Amino acid sequence: MRIQLFTSLLLTAIPSGFASALYPRSVLNGPCTGKDGVIGVCVPTTSCDRDNGTYIHNACPGTPENIKCCTKPHCQLAAQAGDCRWVENCGGGKSLVQYLCPGPDAFRCCITNENATPEPTPTPKPQPDVNLGEKILAKAKEAEGIPYHWAGGNCKGPTGGGFDCSGLVSWAVCQVTGRNLFSEGLRVTRSMYCASASKLKYKKVKWANRRAGDAVFFGGKCDCENNPAGIHHVGLMMDDGYTMWNALKTGTKIRKDNFKNWDESACPYVIRFD
Ligand SMILES: *[C@@H]1O[C@H](CO)[C@@H](O)[C@H](O)[C@H]1NC(C)=O
């Protein structure tokens, strides 16, 4: 009431012809042309903000300073989405969702996606989070049952009828990443484990932090300085415990082994491929 009165007082102060021609009179909770030419509603800025609308200045002529033209081009209730409109502009048959728009009840969310393919509820994909190491492990598992063969293996597959431990790992790395550890001089177990960081270009991670897909090594104290030749075995961790996938020794086939009760414990570091 007070606003109406104020508005009319204001208007009488302006020559009426001028006001009606250039600035058609607006009213609180009445229509207006807002941002980007979209039809909106004249409401207090506070209520526009509260209802997540956008307002522009000088589009509700004749209303008090805090009344602005508020529009809301996107409103949504679950899978129903549309824009805020005057009910009469929504068209027949479309849903109008209340309480999503600024202004009076007649300014509502007009659902425009109703006939769109029902949105398959966007279940956030349970990220399998397969890291590179796990892919390398998966590749190595494809070699299940192939015999151990000392010095066997290259980038393409088994040689001499099989793989040895590092041949298996290097083959899987090559298959998955394209990196050729054979030609880089890293295919021998001790060369892989003892390579400098700049040559290896993979991280060495403390044994305690191992996870599936890491390369695990064996060789006494695993002392690269004094006894690199003692480092004699490598496999791929299958979990963060004691299971690995490997080509173990002559007479075995590529398989899973548990080394929990081995005489020998693993080297202090594992190599992580990503
Ligand atoms: C406005 O946005 C806030 C925060 O995103 C939300 O909680 C609230 O429900 C929205 N209000 C309307 C009317 O859309």
Structure notes:
This protein is α+β, with helices and mostly antiparallel strands. It folds into two domains: 26-111, no CATH class; 132-272, Alpha-Beta Complex (endopeptidase fold (from Nostoc punctiforme)), CATH 3.90.1720. The protein has seven helices and 14 strands. The strands form four sheets. It has a four-stranded antiparallel β-sheet with strand order 1-2-4-3. Strands 5-6-8-7 form a four-stranded antiparallel β-sheet, with no helix packed on it. Strands 10-11-12-13 form a four-stranded antiparallel β-sheet. Strand 1 (31-33) and strand 2 (39-44) form a beta hairpin. Helix 4 (132-141) crosses helix 5. The two termini are 69 Å apart. Mean pLDDT is 89; it is low at 1-21. The structure holds 2-acetamido-2-deoxy-beta-D-glucopyranose. Residues 51-52, 100 line the site of 2-acetamido-2-deoxy-beta-D-glucopyranose.
Number of strands: 14
- Total helices: the number is 7
Shape: rod-shaped
| Tally of domains | 2
Strand order of the largest sheet: 1-2-4-3
Helix content: 10-25%
What CATH architecture label of the largest domain applies?
A: Alpha-Beta Complex
Could you tell me which ligands this complex binds, including any ions or cofactors?
Answer: 2-acetamido-2-deoxy-beta-D-glucopyranose
**Distance, first to last CA:** 69 Å
Report the sheet-strand fraction: 15-25%
- The radius of gyration over CA amounts to 36 Å
Main CATH class of the largest domain: Alpha Beta
Largest sheet: 4 strands, antiparallel
In CATH, the topology of the largest domain is named endopeptidase fold (from Nostoc punctiforme)
Order of helices and strands: HHEEHEEEEEEHHHHEEEEEE
Structural class: alpha+beta
Q: Which blocks of ≥5 consecutive residues have pLDDT under 50? A: 1-21
CATH homology superfamily of the largest domain: endopeptidase domain like (from Nostoc punctiforme)
Residue-averaged pLDDT: 89
Pfam families: NLPC_P60 (PF00877)
Family: Belongs to the peptidase C40 family.
Keywords: Hydrolase, Protease, Signal, Thiol protease
Organism: Trematosphaeria pertusa
